[in-house]
Specification:
The structure holds two protein chains of two kinds. By secondary structure, chain A is an alpha/beta fold. Chain A has helices at 2-18, 30-38, 73-82, 94-98, 131-146, 153-159, 176-179; strands at residues 61-65, 88-92, 122-124, 164-167, 170-173. Chain A is built from seven helices and five strands; from the N terminus they run ααβαβαβααββα. Chain A is globular. Chain B is mainly alpha-helical. The two termini of chain B are 36 Å apart. The chains are: A alpha/beta, B mainly alpha.
Chain lengths: 180, 354
């Protein structure tokens, strides 16, 4: 049994880890570094990730490049929900990791960390990170994917359940209707 | 086919296989060869394009998976196979599932029409070009139905653009084909190739080749005519809502169509499986060898694929160079310039032959 499972795992993880297609989603300045990563000198294509899919239905990886404001938060959640399994998230830049220079109570409009909205696999701080930093994040994600197993997939999905939903353009808790 | 059939039955008879099984195998085997050839070609064609696009923009292209990255697209295929298939509640389920399947299988018919060498031609019809024209309109129709059935505004806009482009490019395509048919005096692809033993059609019909080349880029939905899946305007065009294997069918089907279309161009204009200077290499180097007769067939296929790859290279070059047409300019190009030019070209060809 273990032989079969581990063989399937090896093949699946090899395929998944080596063809991570990111979603074209750049909300601010980190997006410039993301574009730079796919251009010459840096070349994200070496790792097989240059296929930036415009449609979330065909993407595997959501590189959240840039500040997420409260107005953008429902869009981010919807994009994440539209992506098919298995899906991964890289929080790129200080703003997405924990608010960055907008952290604290002074900034009224910025979500302090996108992990309050969607589950994040890799945090990539710095303001903004260099393309090499993004490559490091992708390589770390590949290592994470290689540790996956189809036996523990269900636990993985349970631990990555969303706690928020959209209600009239703002994000509320999943049990909002029961509370009020 | 007769010579190969006799040899095949003879070889199988020596292994005590009855004649009837040999006859059935002989008619079924080519389809398996074609389909396996198609899958392998398409997977490596995607890699070829990604590598070339890398070199054109001074990058390295995929080089981490396998030796020089040759297993990159295999990894992509495995991932797409195991990806979740999303079905929309608001979509037309039957058409939504059907359209990627038909769009892909219609291209297999195109692959069966092509004469790969003087013996291996599965559908050897006297109206091969007509069959090609009819069968190659299926993918376009089902791209439209895919956009319609997924009930998404970006998909439907992409589909309408594709339809408008289809109507405009098919007129020059048909007039150019007529001029080629007029020169070669046949609609059978195999005879069209044999006609070019002394001189390729492209030398007597250079304008026709240019028109056919531009129209076929539009037919293949590639840059600079990829209006129907313009990423910056319509999210992904007609396959916005498709994910996993269904998307892969559209994606791979596009590349299979690219390969077979370039094979058709090399057959119509560049002498198909004939060698460039009328001299077979296997006759020169292996002339005395008893197997040179069989090597000839492989060499013919080699020439066909070499010519095809050169044309594919030029199409990828164009993709790396040119920006996208807008809807208006693309339609103007076809209706105002290419359609009248192709009619004039046909008249000139007829006058010269008289």
């Amino acid at each position: 049994m273990n032989i079969i499972v581990s063989t399937i795992d090896t093949v699946l993880n090899w395929g998944r880890a080596n063809s991570i297609w990111p979603l074209t989603f750049a909300t601010s300045c980190c997006g410039i570094e993301m574009m730079c990563a796919s251009a010459s000198n840096f070349d994200i294509a070496r790792f097989g990730s240059e296929v930036f899919r415009p449609s979330p239905r065909q993407a595997d990886l959501l590189i959240c490049a840039g500040t997420i404001t409260h107005k953008m938060a429902p869009v981010l959640l919807r994009l994440y929900e539209q992506m098919p399994e298995p899906k991964y998230v890289i929080a790129m830049g200080a703003c997405t990791c924990g608010g960055g220079m907008f952290s604290g109570k002074d900034a009224y409009s910025v979500v302090n960390g996108i992990d309050k909205i969607i589950p994040v696999d890799i945090y990539l701080p710095m303001c903004p990170p260099r393309p090499e930093g993004l490559f490091d994040a992708i390589l770390k994600l590949q290592k994470e994917i290689n540790k996956e197993s189809i036996l523990t997939r269900k636990e993985f999905l349970d631990s990555h359940k969303l706690s928020l939903k959209e209600e009239n353009g703002i994000l509320v808790r999943k049990d909002y209707d029961e509370l009020y | 086919m007769n010579f190969l059939l006799c040899k095949f039955v003879e070889v199988l008879n020596s292994f005590n296989v009855s004649e009837y099984i040999a006859l059935i195998l002989f008619s079924v085997l080519p389809f398996f060869i074609i389909i396996s050839f198609l899958v392998v070609t398409v997977i490596f064609l995607v890699l070829f394009e990604r590598k070339l696009l890398g070199y054109f923009t001074q990058r390295k292209g995929p080089n981490r998976v396998g030796l020089w990255g040759i297993l990159q697209t295999t990894a992509d295929a495995i991932k797409l196979l195991c990806k979740e298939n999303i079905e929309l509640l608001s979509s037309d389920k039957f058409l939504f599932t059907l359209s990627p399947i038909v769009a892909f299988t219609a291209i297999i018919i195109l692959w069966c029409i092509i004469p790969y060498n003087s013996e291996f031609n599965m559908i050897n019809s006297s109206v091969g070009v007509l069959i090609y024209l009819v069968a190659s309109s299926f993918p376009m129709l089902f791209h439209f139905l895919a956009g319609y059935s997924s009930n998404n505004k970006y998909s439907i806009i992409g589909s309408y653009r594709a339809l408008a482009l289809t109507v405009s490019y098919s007129v020059p395509v048909i007039f150019t084909l007529l001029s080629v048919i007029y020169i070669t005096e046949s609609m059978n692809l195999n005879q069209m190739v044999l006609f070019q033993t002394s001189r390729w059609v492209v030398f007597s019909n250079i304008l026709g080749f240019i028109i056919f080349y531009i129209s076929s880029i539009a037919k293949l939905n590639r840059c600079p005519f990829d209006l129907s899946e313009a990423e910056s305007e319509l999210v992904c065009g007609y396959h916005t809502e498709y994910s996993g294997m269904r998307f892969a069918m559209f994606f791979l089907g596009e590349y299979a169509e690219l390969f077979v279309m370039c094979m058709l161009i090399s057959i119509l204009f560049f002498g198909g499986y004939l060698p460039p200077f009328g001299i077979y290499l296997s006759n020169i180097f292996m002339g005395n060898c008893p197997v040179s007769h069989y090597l000839l067939y492989f060499e013919q296929t080699f020439w066909l694929i070499l010519k095809t790859l050169i044309i594919i290279f030029s199409i990828i070059w164009i993709r790396a160079t040119l920006p996208r047409f807008t809807q208006k300019t693309a339609l103007e190009l076809f209706w105002k310039y290419l359609t009248p030019l192709s009619i004039v070209n046909l008249i000139i060809i007829i006058l010269v032959r008289i």
